[in-house]
Design goal:
191 residues, mainly alpha, globular
């Protein structure tokens, strides 16, 4: 900042330093409050990609740390804060997924066969659903998990595009920015 305000920028000018620290703290506080607003959606998005709650929560923390450290490079005119944060989260998730073994082609079939071949399991699920007041919530959670399992059978690019559009309401232009894919690939991914 010394090159912008050479006459006021020196270590002895404590008033200027205090004002500068206030501005930086306000930016951090603003970002933190905005990130908190995005946190639930971000966690949900990462959970759907990772299929593991702890991995998703860890990635949200990693995303926050990376975003805070790169906050000076954020350019509001290029993307909304939400788009920028989701881009960081997606890149973190892709790095994590590349280190993990992807689901096999027949994993969904194995799960389906397990559930349909076990009348006892299906009866137990029905009893739980009918016996407890919180069972509807648990069933919804189970169905969300099933949705996550089904999307794991798609190519990662298509999975990401569909989640961003249909679940999180991003527009095609925002998906292009988040994923860094061409318009054609994004259109194919959401088709």
């Amino acid at each position: 900042l010394g090159f912008l305000f050479p006459e006021t920028f020196n270590c002895t000018n404590t008033i200027f330093r205090q004002e500068l620290l206030k501005i930086l703290q306000m930016n951090d506080q603003y970002f933190q409050s905005e990130f908190i607003k995005l946190q639930d959606g971000l966690t949900s998005f990462l959970y759907r990609l990772m299929a593991n709650k702890q991995d998703a929560e860890d990635l949200v923390q990693d995303t926050y740390i990376k975003a805070v450290s790169n906050l000076p490079s954020y350019q509001e005119e290029k993307a909304s804060l939400k788009t920028w944060v989701f881009t960081i989260a997606l890149n973190n998730a892709k790095n994590q997924l590349s280190k993990m073994k992807r689901w096999g082609e027949n994993d969904l079939t194995i799960c389906e066969n397990y559930h349909s071949s076990s009348p006892e399991l299906m009866q137990e699920i029905g009893q739980v659903f009918n016996s407890r007041p919180d069972a509807r919530f648990e069933m919804k959670e189970h169905l969300d998990y099933c949705f996550t399992c089904i999307t794991k059978t798609l190519e990662l690019t298509q999975q990401i595009c569909l989640l961003l559009k249909d679940v999180y309401g991003f527009k095609q232009e925002e998906i292009i920015k988040i994923t860094n894919l061409s318009e054609g690939k994004v259109k194919h991914g959401i088709a």
